[in-house]
Write a structure and sequence with these properties.
The protein has helices spanning 3-16, 21-34, 56-65, 71-78, 83-96, 107-116, 124-133, 159-177; strands at 41-43, 46-48, 105-106, 139-144, 153-157. The chain is elongated and about 60 Å long. By secondary structure, it is mainly alpha-helical.
Protein backbone atom coordinates (compact mmCIF):
# COMPACT_ATOMS: atom_id res chain seq x y z
CA UNK A 1 0.00 0.00 0.00
CA UNK A 2 1.31 3.46 -0.89
CA UNK A 3 2.00 6.12 1.72
CA UNK A 4 -0.70 8.35 0.18
CA UNK A 5 -3.22 5.47 0.59
CA UNK A 6 -2.31 5.09 4.26
CA UNK A 7 -2.67 8.82 4.87
CA UNK A 8 -6.08 8.83 3.17
CA UNK A 9 -7.22 5.86 5.27
CA UNK A 10 -6.03 7.59 8.44
CA UNK A 11 -7.93 10.77 7.52
CA UNK A 12 -11.10 8.81 6.76
CA UNK A 13 -10.93 6.95 10.08
CA UNK A 14 -10.30 10.15 12.06
CA UNK A 15 -13.21 11.86 10.34
CA UNK A 16 -15.70 9.00 10.65
CA UNK A 17 -14.82 7.76 14.13
CA UNK A 18 -16.92 10.29 16.10
CA UNK A 19 -20.01 9.66 13.93
CA UNK A 20 -22.79 7.17 14.67
CA UNK A 21 -23.03 4.04 12.51
CA UNK A 22 -25.98 5.56 10.62
CA UNK A 23 -24.05 8.78 9.95
CA UNK A 24 -21.01 6.78 8.79
CA UNK A 25 -23.18 4.77 6.41
CA UNK A 26 -24.74 7.95 4.98
CA UNK A 27 -21.32 9.62 4.53
CA UNK A 28 -19.72 6.54 2.95
CA UNK A 29 -22.67 5.94 0.62
CA UNK A 30 -22.52 9.60 -0.49
CA UNK A 31 -18.73 9.40 -1.02
CA UNK A 32 -18.99 6.21 -3.10
CA UNK A 33 -21.64 7.82 -5.31
CA UNK A 34 -19.96 11.24 -5.50
CA UNK A 35 -16.56 9.78 -6.42
CA UNK A 36 -18.24 7.38 -8.88
CA UNK A 37 -16.60 4.32 -7.35
CA UNK A 38 -17.85 1.47 -9.48
CA UNK A 39 -18.89 -2.03 -8.36
CA UNK A 40 -19.26 -1.23 -4.66
CA UNK A 41 -22.24 -1.07 -2.39
CA UNK A 42 -22.80 -1.16 1.35
CA UNK A 43 -24.92 -4.13 2.44
CA UNK A 44 -25.55 -5.03 6.10
CA UNK A 45 -22.62 -2.85 7.16
CA UNK A 46 -20.12 -4.55 4.87
CA UNK A 47 -18.79 -3.25 1.58
CA UNK A 48 -19.52 -5.71 -1.22
CA UNK A 49 -19.24 -5.86 -4.97
CA UNK A 50 -22.46 -4.69 -6.61
CA UNK A 51 -24.44 -7.02 -8.83
CA UNK A 52 -23.59 -6.31 -12.42
CA UNK A 53 -26.19 -4.46 -14.41
CA UNK A 54 -28.31 -7.22 -15.89
CA UNK A 55 -30.83 -7.19 -18.68
CA UNK A 56 -34.51 -7.47 -17.77
CA UNK A 57 -34.78 -11.18 -18.64
CA UNK A 58 -32.12 -11.89 -16.01
CA UNK A 59 -34.18 -10.05 -13.38
CA UNK A 60 -37.21 -12.15 -14.34
CA UNK A 61 -35.17 -15.34 -13.91
CA UNK A 62 -34.14 -14.33 -10.39
CA UNK A 63 -37.67 -13.25 -9.48
CA UNK A 64 -39.08 -16.61 -10.60
CA UNK A 65 -36.39 -18.83 -9.07
CA UNK A 66 -35.44 -16.71 -6.06
CA UNK A 67 -31.77 -17.17 -6.90
CA UNK A 68 -29.73 -20.35 -7.21
CA UNK A 69 -28.01 -21.95 -4.25
CA UNK A 70 -26.09 -24.58 -6.20
CA UNK A 71 -24.59 -25.08 -9.62
CA UNK A 72 -26.91 -28.08 -10.03
CA UNK A 73 -30.01 -25.89 -9.64
CA UNK A 74 -28.59 -23.38 -12.12
CA UNK A 75 -27.74 -26.00 -14.76
CA UNK A 76 -31.12 -27.69 -14.28
CA UNK A 77 -32.93 -24.37 -14.78
CA UNK A 78 -31.02 -23.68 -18.01
CA UNK A 79 -31.46 -27.26 -19.27
CA UNK A 80 -28.69 -26.95 -21.89
CA UNK A 81 -29.05 -29.45 -24.72
CA UNK A 82 -25.41 -29.63 -25.89
CA UNK A 83 -22.07 -30.15 -24.17
CA UNK A 84 -20.98 -26.69 -25.34
CA UNK A 85 -23.98 -25.02 -23.71
CA UNK A 86 -23.49 -27.11 -20.55
CA UNK A 87 -19.89 -25.87 -20.34
CA UNK A 88 -21.09 -22.28 -20.84
CA UNK A 89 -23.82 -22.66 -18.22
CA UNK A 90 -21.41 -24.06 -15.62
CA UNK A 91 -18.88 -21.32 -16.43
CA UNK A 92 -21.52 -18.60 -16.01
CA UNK A 93 -22.46 -19.97 -12.58
CA UNK A 94 -18.84 -20.30 -11.45
CA UNK A 95 -18.01 -16.78 -12.63
CA UNK A 96 -21.21 -14.90 -11.73
CA UNK A 97 -21.74 -16.43 -8.29
CA UNK A 98 -18.08 -16.16 -7.22
CA UNK A 99 -17.05 -13.82 -4.40
CA UNK A 100 -14.42 -12.28 -6.68
CA UNK A 101 -16.03 -10.27 -9.52
CA UNK A 102 -12.84 -10.68 -11.60
CA UNK A 103 -12.77 -14.47 -11.29
CA UNK A 104 -11.23 -16.38 -14.16
CA UNK A 105 -11.86 -20.04 -14.85
CA UNK A 106 -9.89 -23.00 -16.13
CA UNK A 107 -11.28 -25.76 -18.29
CA UNK A 108 -10.43 -28.23 -15.55
CA UNK A 109 -12.42 -26.28 -12.95
CA UNK A 110 -15.47 -26.13 -15.23
CA UNK A 111 -15.29 -29.80 -16.20
CA UNK A 112 -14.76 -30.93 -12.58
CA UNK A 113 -18.04 -29.24 -11.63
CA UNK A 114 -19.81 -30.81 -14.60
CA UNK A 115 -18.45 -34.24 -13.64
CA UNK A 116 -19.92 -33.85 -10.15
CA UNK A 117 -23.28 -33.24 -11.84
CA UNK A 118 -22.84 -36.28 -14.14
CA UNK A 119 -22.26 -34.15 -17.25
CA UNK A 120 -18.47 -34.20 -17.68
CA UNK A 121 -17.38 -33.52 -21.26
CA UNK A 122 -14.85 -35.56 -23.18
CA UNK A 123 -12.87 -32.57 -24.49
CA UNK A 124 -13.36 -29.36 -22.53
CA UNK A 125 -10.91 -27.44 -24.73
CA UNK A 126 -12.97 -28.15 -27.87
CA UNK A 127 -16.10 -26.89 -26.11
CA UNK A 128 -14.37 -23.71 -24.95
CA UNK A 129 -12.88 -23.14 -28.40
CA UNK A 130 -16.40 -23.42 -29.86
CA UNK A 131 -17.60 -20.80 -27.37
CA UNK A 132 -14.65 -18.56 -28.30
CA UNK A 133 -15.49 -18.99 -32.00
CA UNK A 134 -19.13 -17.95 -31.64
CA UNK A 135 -20.06 -14.52 -32.85
CA UNK A 136 -20.29 -12.67 -30.58
CA UNK A 137 -17.81 -14.62 -28.47
CA UNK A 138 -19.28 -16.34 -25.42
CA UNK A 139 -15.90 -16.95 -23.75
CA UNK A 140 -12.51 -15.31 -24.04
CA UNK A 141 -9.06 -16.45 -22.99
CA UNK A 142 -7.48 -14.12 -20.45
CA UNK A 143 -4.19 -15.87 -19.67
CA UNK A 144 -2.02 -18.84 -20.53
CA UNK A 145 -0.17 -20.58 -17.69
CA UNK A 146 3.12 -21.83 -19.10
CA UNK A 147 4.70 -21.96 -22.52
CA UNK A 148 3.49 -25.35 -23.73
CA UNK A 149 0.74 -25.47 -26.33
CA UNK A 150 -1.39 -27.53 -23.96
CA UNK A 151 -0.77 -25.34 -20.90
CA UNK A 152 -3.78 -24.51 -18.74
CA UNK A 153 -5.48 -21.32 -19.81
CA UNK A 154 -7.72 -18.95 -17.89
CA UNK A 155 -11.05 -17.87 -19.35
CA UNK A 156 -13.92 -15.49 -18.67
CA UNK A 157 -17.47 -15.62 -19.92
CA UNK A 158 -18.44 -12.53 -21.92
CA UNK A 159 -21.63 -10.51 -21.53
CA UNK A 160 -22.97 -12.27 -24.66
CA UNK A 161 -22.31 -15.67 -23.05
CA UNK A 162 -24.01 -14.65 -19.81
CA UNK A 163 -27.03 -13.34 -21.72
CA UNK A 164 -27.21 -16.58 -23.72
CA UNK A 165 -27.44 -18.70 -20.56
CA UNK A 166 -30.03 -16.47 -18.88
CA UNK A 167 -32.10 -16.57 -22.07
CA UNK A 168 -31.96 -20.38 -21.91
CA UNK A 169 -33.33 -20.17 -18.38
CA UNK A 170 -36.01 -17.62 -19.20
CA UNK A 171 -37.05 -19.54 -22.34
CA UNK A 172 -37.38 -22.69 -20.25
CA UNK A 173 -39.58 -20.74 -17.83
CA UNK A 174 -41.73 -19.49 -20.69
CA UNK A 175 -42.14 -23.00 -22.14
CA UNK A 176 -43.10 -24.38 -18.71
CA UNK A 177 -45.79 -21.70 -18.27
CA UNK A 178 -47.33 -22.22 -21.72
Amino acid sequence: MELADLRALEAVLKTLEPLTPEERERVLRWAVEKLQVKNLSVVDGTLKAKERDRPTHVDRVFEKHGGFDTIGEFVAAAAPKTDVDRVLTAAVYLQDFADDPQKTLTGREINDQLKHLGFGVRNITDCINTLKARSPQHMIQTKKNGGARQAWKDYRVTRAGIDHVYKLISNGDHDAEA
